[in-house]
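can u pls check wat happens w/ zinc ion
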Amino acid sequence: MAWIFQGNPNRFDIDDYLSRYSQLIYWRTNRYIKEISVGDPVFIWRAGSDAGAVAVGRVVEEPTQAQEVKHPEALGDDLWVADELSPTEFKTGIQLSEVRLSTDEGMVARSIAKDDVTLASSTIITVPSGTVFHLSDDEMAALIHLWGAPIDIFPAAGVVEGKQQLRAHYARERSSRLRRDKLSAFRKEHGSLFCEICGFSASAHHPKPFAERAYEVHHRNPLAAAATPVRTTLNDLAVLCANCHRAVHANSHVIENYEELAKLYASRR
Ligand SMILES: [Zn+2]
Ligand SMILES: [Zn+2]
């Protein structure tokens, strides 16, 4: 079966959670405990003023009491704003394949879903209260269509191939929240922004509104977290100019590429 799991940003910091735990997340699912199965496709839906589908993935762990999940470190308990985690509530583990937190990044806004003939009558649109929504096959197909994805957005559970991983990597790096936090922390520490590989300082070349756009945030260790879900911290991220970032991702040897380029530029200084 296909699902939408909804969350309310006023009660739980969804954006932070999806940005930082890009591999495995847990969602509160106190309904349909018997029906949710490994392999089921899931869309994560953010409620509130900026509502819509913001992530997609597959169930990898069936509803389990919070105190017994396989990876409690990925529960993100500290991100509850209004509620608290109860150890006996049920959590479903989801392997995410894509996160899009804003319309810029390609989330499917509620207003768009509402205009879709098939989705207009789905319960997430008509009766949007609750956490777990079952989607019919037609509704799921319509939502996938709106999401739009050139490659399989639902890789088989546990199997994330290289291309998929790279997409996830970029999506996480683009995630507005992490990017913003990293850039402001970097600026605080160093006084200004510059590329950590080549030293490029955009403010010297571009007018202010464009300068910040010249930087991308790179996850230093994209594949290391494969075995266990690890929270992304700002120290895991590097600030790079777009050119260097592209070079780092020239092939799958991301870590080696980074080191090689950094060494090269350091020797020229
Ligand atoms: Zn650079
Ligand atoms: Zn990167």
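The pocket of zinc ion (ligand 2) is lined by residues 169, 173, 218-219, 245, 249 (CB under 6 Å).
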